[in-house]
Write a structure and sequence with these properties.
- The complex is a heterodimer.
- By secondary structure, chain A is mainly alpha-helical.
- Chain A contains six helices and three strands; from the N terminus they run H-H-H-H-H-E-E-E-H.
- A three-stranded antiparallel β-sheet of chain A has the order 1-3-2.
- Helices cover 31% and strands 22% of the residues of chain B.
- Chain B has an eight-stranded mixed β-sheet.
- The longest helix of chain B is centred in the C-terminal third of the chain and has 20 residues.
- The radius of gyration of chain B is 16 Å and the shape is globular.
- Chains A and B meet through helix 1 and helix 2 of A and helix 2 and helix 4 of B.
């Protein structure tokens, strides 16, 4: 795997130094939003109710409502519990290197032709986690291109969960 | 901004017939298109930031932000642009504790705030939709500074002024439902 000049430069500059806390905060927020996106999509796709999920997890509905209400600093156990209880899903782990791609600054050139408001096209492929916004249920959600965590429900057995 | 400059700016922007035309003219100067630091070139949503908002989100991996909250806000805005799922509170004063995007009172002002809740107490960014999936982030402040209705009213006025200084009398997007503002991957709270 090729490590780009950007990541090399970053880590060379960090030699013997602490990574700035805001840099870590950037990725913390990013990960919280993306795992929330992942879990919430899985919840909607499953078509179960929060009440049913609460029963499956043996927790109060209020607790489930809070968890599914907003991204948060979930523990790994919480993520595991939620995904399995929602659809029998489990996490597949994968590491990727976002810094491989050249970091971009806020764009200053005119790029209006790319904008949704001006009719610029976009593809569902650009959305991380592959399942996109098509609404088409998929049993397997994975994107090595963009996802740090993928979910697989190859062993989805709703009947077993319902028992 | 000097008092003499405002009328001139308004006179200039009055020549724009549409918000998209205004954005085209202002982009790169008074407005900057926020492109996620990492990800794809094309995104389902667009956020333009004013100079004021640009001041706190312009950090990068190599030159980090001044504050963890600024970095967190940038990550949130990046993911907003990238199409991450968000909770949206359409009605002001609704139970919007978890909402990432919420409408500010009064509804007629068409001002929304993007709520970066973490690290606590977070940051609020105020702006308007210029078009569906296109948000103009105009002003911001730390959440702890919001005390009482007067502050919110002042912030609405400040945001409105910021809009008018850029777009003149052009109206922001006025929708009948959330589906008029966002295309996908959101849910109402």
């Amino acid at each position: 795997m090729t490590i780009s000049l950007t990541i090399s430069t970053l880590f060379k500059s960090l030699a013997g130094k602490a990574i700035p806390a805001p840099t870590l905060a950037y990725f913390q927020t990013r990960n919280r939003m993306r795992i929330f996106d992942l879990v919430h999509r899985e919840f909607e796709r499953s078509e179960i109710t929060q009440t049913e999920l609460a029963v499956r997890l043996g927790k109060g509905k209020d607790r489930i409502s809070r968890l599914l209400g907003a991204p948060g600093n979930w523990t790994l156990d919480t993520i595991s519990d939620l995904l399995f209880a929602i659809s029998g899903a489990a996490i597949k782990y994968e590491i990727y290197y976002p810094l491989e791609r050249s970091e971009r600054q806020i764009q200053t050139k005119n790029a209006a032709s790319q904008l949704p408001m001006l009719g610029g096209g976009y593809s569902t492929n650009i959305i991380f986690y592959g399942a996109g916004f098509t609404g088409a249920p998929k049993a397997y959600v994975s994107s090595s291109e963009t996802g740090t965590v993928t979910v697989s429900n190859d062993y989805y057995t709703p009947m077993a969960l319902a028992q | 901004m000097s008092g003499a400059f405002i009328p001139l700016a308004k006179w200039v922007v009055l020549t724009y017939k549409t918000t998209s035309e205004a954005i085209n003219a202002l982009e790169g100067t008074a407005l900057r298109l926020l492109v996620p630091l990492f990800g794809d070139e094309e995104n389902p949503r667009a956020v333009y930031v004013s100079e004021e908002v640009y001041g706190i989100v312009k950090g990068s991996m190599l030159e980090s932000w001044d504050d963890e909250r600024h970095a967190s806000l940038r990550a949130l805005l990046d993911d907003f642009v990238a199409g991450t799922r968000i909770a949206v509170a359409e009605a002001p004063y609704s139970n919007k504790g978890c909402a990432t995007l919420a409408r500010v009172d009064p509804v007629e002002a068409e001002i929304w705030d993007i709520r970066c809740l973490d690290p606590y107490p977070g940051i609020r960014v105020f702006g308007r939709f210029a078009a569906k999936d296109t948000f103009i982030a105009l002003t911001w402040d730390y959440r702890e500074n919001f005390e009482g209705g007067v502050y919110w009213a002042n912030e609405v006025a400040r945001c409105t002024d910021a809009w008018e200084s850029l777009f003149g009398t052009l109206s922001p997007l006025k929708g009948n439902s959330l589906n008029d503002y966002l295309s996908h991957n959101f849910y109402a709270v």
